[in-house]
Amino acid sequence: MRALFFGTPEIAVPALEALCEVAEVVGVVSQPDRPAGRGLALRAPAVKERALQLGLAVVQPTKVRTDEFAAWVRSRDASVALVMAYGRILPPAVLDAPSRGCMNLHASLLPKYRGASPITWAVVHGERETGISLMQMDAGLDTGPVYAMRRITIDSNETSGELAVRLARLAADVVRDELVAAMDGRLCAEAQDAGRATLAPILTREHGRLDWGRSAHELHDHVRGMQPWPGAWTRLRGKLMKVLRTRERSEVGVDAAPGTVVLADGGGLVVACRQGSLELLQVQLEGRKAMAARDFVAGRAVQAGDRLDTASGE
Known about the structure:
Elements: E1 2-7, H1 13-22, E2 24-29, E3 34-36, E4 41-43, H2 46-53, E5 58-59, H3 67-75, E6 80-84, H4 92-95, E7 102-106, E8 114-115, H5 118-124, E9 129-136, E10 146-153, H6 160-183, E11 199-200, H7 216-225, E12 232-236, E13 239-248, E14 261-265, E15 268-272, E16 277-285, E17 291-292, H8 293-298
Parallel strand pairs: 1-2, 1-6, 2-5, 6-7, 8-11
Antiparallel strand pairs: 3-4, 7-9, 9-10, 12-13, 13-16, 14-15, 15-16, 16-17
């Protein structure tokens, strides 16, 4: 089959590689290069870099809702367009251009976590299972019928970044097996139950803010869910402090107000929550490098009795 591939970040690279194994890839569509790093030099998306290494033609339209782009897609004479983490909503003229339309590899068990950040929100909400859904795209937001789902468990200490690596490999397996079966007519797509749908909204920096008025369990999930972006953060003595790794410390009994540092010594850095307490294992204070919390404590940057801010800023 002749196939197009739409994708942008690293998580989509294994799916592109797998598609090259089962189809003639007649074009790759990725978002434009973006400024990155301290020097803000333009950086190519991971999918573009890999596509060029594979000798594939790459286009990076600044707009997808144009007659010119729809005409380009039609000119590829593709059987299907496979989409994974492209980052833009495709208009009907593009969705309908390949003979079998566009299929999406979505990193959740649909209809759960429709939207832009399904991996992050699954971890933040403490899910113990997620996966890859192969679906036929329509004009809605991840609302099309689903051909197949592959499931994977989520470890209780796994970050979103770590989970994304495993989901990327799983997506490649779906391409090799379920995509081929769907194209051959061996799989039938089933409509989603819209009544069970949940949304995974686009992430902003503010989503990373820690609310110490929540339980230690919820905060632990929040910290690992927000890694690597936007990162979980709070404030210590007015300075922004990123919290990179944590663990629950149920054995530390506290009566202190949520957000109060109840332990800051050789035994660790522990903060009171609404229920239980949370040990901070790795932190990064504004303007400084990331470090183990025990080294942070040894440098007397924090002490018992300090109050970390709440979500309301109190």
